[in-house]
Design goal:
CATH class of the largest domain: Mainly Alpha
Strand content: 15-25%
Helix content: 25-40%
Shape: globular
Strand order of the largest sheet: 1-2-7-6-5-4-8-3
Number of strands: 11
CATH superfamily of the largest domain: EF-hand
CATH topology of the largest domain: Recoverin, domain 1
Structural class: alpha+beta
Distance between the termini: 21 Å
Number of helices: 8
Largest sheet: 8 strands, mixed
CATH architecture of the largest domain: Orthogonal Bundle
Number of domains: 2
Order of helices and strands: EEEEEEEEHEHHEEHHHHH
Oligomer: single chain
Length: 308
């Protein structure tokens, strides 16, 4: 999450508690989305692309916390600009001081926070029979639960997209497995172990600096989840719609939901400063898979993570 420290109108300091897609709401400013890409070889300058297609270069002063300590992951960025605009910022997901650590794919390692989120995804969305294994049938079962929850017909565009996502999921997670500790075949059906799940995600994320680097099926999963949760079709996920998703798709009981729902909705909407529309949900979705540090806006995407 991002916090604002008051300075003059031309300098805003952003504190980033995780290195990935985040939102910085300034309700007194005009609304605009800005995309900036950190140039690692010029860490004091950042290229910015605005919604209207114009581009500018802003000067940023960056400071990083000690690398290797994910709880001290935040860095501060001072944005020097004369314009007053609300920023929806897509930042590079690596710490400025640590981004060189995995120039080679094999150097990449998951943080404990990211591993916990991926384990949670495995357990809550796919491993419905709790056997610590995932098959293509488990993903098909998730697709059917989402279809029934969203009341989509089997001929709907949404369900057809879900089927394409399922194909992409299968190709990503069930092919080229040679270690039986990661996955194995039984009666012509491939099963992925929890270790294999983490191994496949490590490979996928090692080549993904932003959500645009994700395979199409994974990007589309975020879109279809938003459409499914927003059953009203209003374009904004309500608190009750989020709670219904937690209950029907994730299988959480009412007591568990009551303990997390208000906090989850506040965090995902920046304490109500932003509606939970597709853009905001997209930020949270990207943060869930790319955020390497705790307490990001996407931490409640699939409900509260279990305690370590």
């Amino acid at each position: 999450m991002l916090q604002k420290r008051s300075q003059d109108n031309e300098t805003k300091t952003l504190y980033e508690s995780l290195s990935n897609t985040c939102t910085f709401p300034c309700t007194e400013w005009n609304k605009v989305s800005i995309h900036f890409c950190i140039r690692l070889n010029h860490p004091s300058k950042h290229f910015v692309q605005s919604e209207d297609g114009s581009s500018k270069t802003y000067v940023l002063k960056a400071s990083t916390a000690s690398s290797g300590d994910e709880n001290r992951c935040p860095r501060s960025l001072s944005l020097i600009t004369g314009s007053k605009k609300s920023l929806a910022i897509y930042t590079d997901r690596f710490n400025t001081g640590a981004s060189h650590q995995w120039e080679d794919e094999e150097d990449y390692q998951l943080t404990s926070t990211l591993r916990s989120k991926l384990d949670h995804f495995f357990t809550c969305l796919l491993d419905s029979d709790k056997d610590n294994l995932v098959s293509d049938q488990d993903f098909a079962s998730f697709s059917e639960r989402l279809r029934e929850f969203a009341i989509w017909s089997t001929n709907s565009t949404e369900f057809k997209m879900l089927q394409q996502i399922e194909i992409g999921f299968t190709e990503t997670f069930f092919e080229n497995i040679t270690d039986t500790g990661l996955g194995f075949m039984v009666n012509n059906q491939m099963f992925l172990t929890r270790k294999g799940w983490i191994d496949k995600w490590t490979h996928l994320l090692s080549t993904s600096r932003t959500i645009t680097n994700f395979p199409n099926w994974l990007q589309n999963l975020g879109k279809i989840l938003f459409e499914g949760i927003n059953k009203s079709g209003s374009g904004i996920i309500s608190r009750n719609e989020l709670g219904a998703f937690y209950s029907s798709i994730l299988g959480f009981d009412s007591i568990r939901i009551s303990k997390m729902l208000d906090v989850a909705y506040q965090i995902m909407t920046s304490n109500g400063d932003r509606p939970l529309d597709y853009n905001t949900y997209h930020f949270c979705y990207a943060n869930y898979f790319l955020g390497r540090c705790p307490n990001g806006p996407g931490q409640f995407l699939f409900g509260l993570l279990p305690s370590p």
